[in-house]
């Protein structure tokens, strides 16, 4: 008996000791932004033993995000950081012999980006190119490793004067976010000889060429271009093929009036797989991309996924050319599928409540992919023998101390009977029987979808004790073309019905406290925030990021001139449509919701004027409001300290009205 009691006491002490050693998980907080890294652009070495990728991390002391190149062995046992420069590196590509990694950087004080070459065994990178004019946008090695196809953009004004000059514009599309005002320029393909360092012009003329892809035998290059009479007035791109030598003539392979893109040569070099838009209009917003194949000599294409009615992306041929693997976006998930190049027959390979990213084929026939789920940011995985094996583990340290929200799907019904797919984020350890303050955080796009993937913004809000709802309103993809396209020229109508239907669901099912509802979003999510609070007064607080409410004032002010003309028509002909869509601003006196407005100072996508107008209107009629403008930021807020500031302001603003 004494022996038994001693053993029991020892067991209890051991258990208590283990509990004491187990750290308590904590909620996510805004400063965790500094700890989150991004894994991207994975490339498999020619012999298949290594995978290179870019790891982006934040230097909190310098308030700067920096990208370095890493490589990991195919078996996952060894990870090596190859670059450690404060200037950052991108677009790492293996030389065809596998001995070198090239990358693009403006390190060492260069005023423009150049290609650098690094021995994969170690040592410093050496500058390979010395381009004097133009900006290097992209590049691709020839299969024999002797040449590199370059994509270089040159401006009409090549002077190096430090004094600012007037910006002279004569284009139909004249502004674009990040790029700014668009002047005369040309983007062409060039051939760079590794041995002689000589650059030869491959394409020239009045059209832009991008996205070069070498044929397997290295004799030809496929690329994209728009050869319509005025490329500024449509969204067309076609696939062209040109012999990889100077003075060659390009041949147009596709003729769809919409957009053909993402060309991938078949292993035997006889076919090209590619993506094509469903829509053939001059402006393409609402779309479900189709997987196609066409002969390298042109002709009638095969539309392999036309009947699927779901967006397909990232096509890659199997090793023997008997199949094409691709990603399919479908109702909150993104899965890996196998398509027959003969009849388009689809076979799901990997699905579930998660989201897969890029695809790269290994020499053995296996595939490299990325994957994210609601609890884990994207990492690299290997898909072989019908199994998924994790290759990188860069987020383990980030996740270790955190108690994250759980995520579950639900379907709501809108007032007109439409079924809408949604996601609910519940705070960690929250009781499912407790009604919580609830924030609807609306995605942008509108052609996008909220998936079972890691979402930092919604996790951050849930960590503060809120239920958070993501609504895949009409206009989202993943539910078919009709579901996506139905909002064309009718913004702020059916989407609002869908948001309010989801609101009714969480209230009626005891999930949300009806007296503590908030709403927010960025870009189209900010626009829908404005539309929703102008339609329904039940929301106690809102945050509208990079939004606009007075559509009638935006023609020519943002980058969506084609959308205005093709969905609404010219304002001087159809001003009633513009006025109808401006109802949040024109009916501002009916709004009761205190609203925070945020925007990047240099945003050309949805310019700051959209937020400024609503802020001014709120001030004029006496609705509680505030306006935050982030200096030097475009449509996306990239400055790390500003990203943290935005989260802190979300929490303070929502907390002021939902946690009284």
From TrEMBL:
Residues 1-20 form the signal peptide. InterPro entries: 6-blade_b-propeller_TolB-like, AB_hydrolase_fold, Pept_S9_AS, Peptidase_S9_cat, WD40. Gene3D superfamilies: alpha/beta hydrolase, TolB, C-terminal domain. SUPFAM superfamilies: alpha/beta-Hydrolases, DPP6 N-terminal domain-like. Pfam families: PD40 (PF07676), Peptidase_S9 (PF00326). One of its GO terms (molecular function) is hydrolase activity. Keywords: Acetylation, Hydrolase, Protease, Serine protease, Signal. Residues 453-659 form the Peptidase S9 prolyl oligopeptidase catalytic domain. This enzyme catalyzes the hydrolysis of the N-terminal peptide bond of an N-acetylated peptide to generate an N-acetylated amino acid and a peptide with a free N-terminus. It preferentially cleaves off Ac-Ala, Ac-Met and Ac-Ser. Also, involved in the degradation of oxidized and glycated proteins. PANTHER family: DIPEPTIDYL PEPTIDASE FAMILY MEMBER 6, SERINE PEPTIDASE S9 FAMILY MEMBER. This is Acyl-peptide hydrolase.
